[in-house]
């Protein structure tokens, strides 16, 4: 590209960027602060008074995307643990049948114990545990993947997580832990940028500590263009406290664990709010009470409660040496993330069948190379040892039961969906017939 053509292209690019900035109601100062440069220097770059390098082109586009109020954000339940005031096998079966609506026959007896609970049963990643000490009650635990698996059941019955939390609330359970994850689909959050804010003291928190980690696998170094990493993670608070905040690059995690290309990962970042004991109980009470009264729309209530909790414990600011810290302005990226009113906040569901991906990945990465070597060895020796071992192996009973139940549930969902569709068609035909008459 000639110097003249490059100059014309640069001018058009800068004009387009400035139009986008104004459309988003952003000032040059706000954009410059997110870039870590002065407003004057940003203006010089945009007007061509200073050379604009390739890296800065990308950073400016990224910041405008992060500050876009139209960016999509959803909230999901990512972990749940409660204690029922019940005991023994009768209590376990009642919870399975009446609360979870999963036949207890699908639960498997685990060989290990959980803390002081001697008897542990599991269905996938849903755990029920009881102790010989009746005072300890029964623990119901949903791990992350369990939440996604159970959403098949919720959607089939037309339930939401709010409905399920209300059901638990009516049983007078003891709330032990509730994790809410805020999914960032458009890269609004910049974990590295927020870490720098922590290092410079440009944040306000009730938590007593923060931690930052970069981790990864060396065998992915070349694939990620020299970027070593599973991604960046920023922790605010301690695991033992009533609230613990964790934010990380979800796209890198998906790339390393499942091989999903970074550009194809739907969720770019995730912020998790881990609530324990009384703080978890108060949050559930607020959600149920406010939604039950119905004075505001669900998205407004969720927005107010969830982001209200987040900003009560943590928010980021912009340093102003002429003002005391309590008067520093809210960081523009954080402001857009928390107060972008154009988005529709909801507790989303993302139902997934029993996750076989991890098992397939383990087979492909760890077992397949060894298995192929043994197959070649058997072939050379005229034997069939490995094939015989696979054919004679007993199927994993837990996996078989889980797949069986979910197959039944999915089949019912398809029948139900088909029934609804047929009803809609019948209504349309009746309406069309009436109009013809």
List keywords for this structure.
437 residues, alpha+beta, globular, 15 helices, 434 Repressor (Amino-terminal Domain), 4 domains
Descriptive overview:
- This protein has 437 residues and is an alpha+beta fold.
- The protein has four domains: 65 residues, 434 Repressor (Amino-terminal Domain) (Orthogonal Bundle), CATH 1.10.260; 108 residues; 150 residues, no CATH class; 37 residues, no CATH class.
- Helices cover 50% and strands 16% of the residues.
- It starts with a helix and ends with a helix.
Low-pLDDT stretches: 413-432
Categorize the overall geometry: globular
- Enumerate how many helices there are, as a single number: 15
Q: What is the chains' assembly state?
A: single chain
Mean pLDDT: 81
Helicity level: 40-55%
The side-by-side strand order for the widest beta sheet comes to: 2-3-4-5-1-6-11-10-9-8
Determine Rg (CA atoms, Å). Answer: 27 Å
* SSE succession: HHHHEHEEEEHHEHEEEEHEHHEHHHH
The number of distinct structural domains comes to 4
For the largest beta-sheet, the strand count, sense and barrel status come to:
10 strands, antiparallel
Class from helix and strand fractions? alpha+beta
Could you provide a short overview of the structure?
The chain has 437 residues and is of the alpha+beta class. It folds into four domains: 3-67, Orthogonal Bundle (434 Repressor (Amino-terminal Domain)), CATH 1.10.260; 73-180; 184-284 and 291-339, no CATH class; 356-392, no CATH class. Helices cover 50% and strands 16% of the residues.
């Amino acid at each position: 590209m000639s110097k003249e053509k490059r100059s014309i292209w640069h001018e058009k690019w800068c004009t387009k960027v400035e139009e986008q900035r104004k459309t988003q109601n952003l000032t040059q100062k706000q954009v410059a602060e997110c870039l870590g440069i002065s407003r004057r220097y940003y203006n010089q770059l945009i007007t061509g008074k200073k050379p604009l390098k390739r890296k800065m082109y990308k950073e400016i586009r990224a910041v405008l995307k992060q500050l876009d109020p139209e960016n999509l954000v959803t909230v999901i339940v990512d972990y749940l643990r409660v204690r029922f005031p019940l005991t023994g096998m009768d209590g376990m079966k009642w919870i399975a049948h009446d609360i979870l609506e999963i036949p207890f026959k699908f639960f498997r007896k685990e060989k290990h114990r959980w803390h002081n609970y001697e008897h542990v049963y599991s269905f996938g990643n849903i755990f029920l545990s009881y102790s010989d000490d009746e005072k300890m009650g029964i623990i119901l635990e949903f791990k992350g993947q369990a939440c996604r698996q159970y959403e098949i059941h919720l959607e089939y019955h037309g339930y939401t997580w709010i409905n399920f939390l209300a059901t638990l609330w009516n049983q007078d359970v003891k709330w032990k832990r509730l994790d809410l994850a805020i999914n960032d689909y458009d890269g609004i959050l910049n974990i590295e940028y927020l870490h720098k804010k922590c290092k410079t003291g440009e944040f306000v928190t009730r938590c007593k500590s923060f931690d930052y980690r970069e981790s990864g696998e060396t065998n992915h170094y070349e694939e990620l263009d020299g970027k070593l990493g599973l991604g960046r993670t920023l922790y605010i608070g301690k695991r033992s406290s009533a609230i613990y905040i964790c934010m990380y690059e979800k796209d890198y995690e998906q790339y390393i664990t499942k091989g999903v290309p970074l550009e194809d990962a739907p969720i770019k970042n995730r912020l998790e709010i881990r609530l324990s004991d009384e703080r978890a109980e108060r949050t559930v009470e607020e959600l149920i009470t406010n939604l039950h009264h119905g004075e505001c729309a669900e998205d407004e209530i969720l927005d107010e409660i969830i982001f209200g909790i987040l900003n009560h414990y943590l928010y980021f600011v912009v340093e102003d040496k002429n003002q005391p810290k309590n008067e520093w302005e809210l960081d523009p990226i954080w402001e857009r993330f928390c107060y972008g009113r154009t988005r529709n906040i909801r507790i989303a569901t993302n139902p997934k069948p029993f996750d076989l991906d991890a098992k397939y990945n383990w087979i492909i990465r760890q077992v397949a190379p060894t298995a192929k070597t043994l197959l070649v060895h058997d072939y050379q020796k005229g034997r069939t040892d490995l094939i015989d071992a696979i054919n004679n192996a007993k199927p994993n009973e837990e996996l078989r039961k889980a797949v069986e139940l979910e197959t039944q549930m999915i089949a019912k969902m398809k029948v139900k969906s088909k029934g609804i569709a047929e009803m809609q068609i019948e209504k349309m035909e009746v309406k069309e017939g009436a109009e013809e008459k």
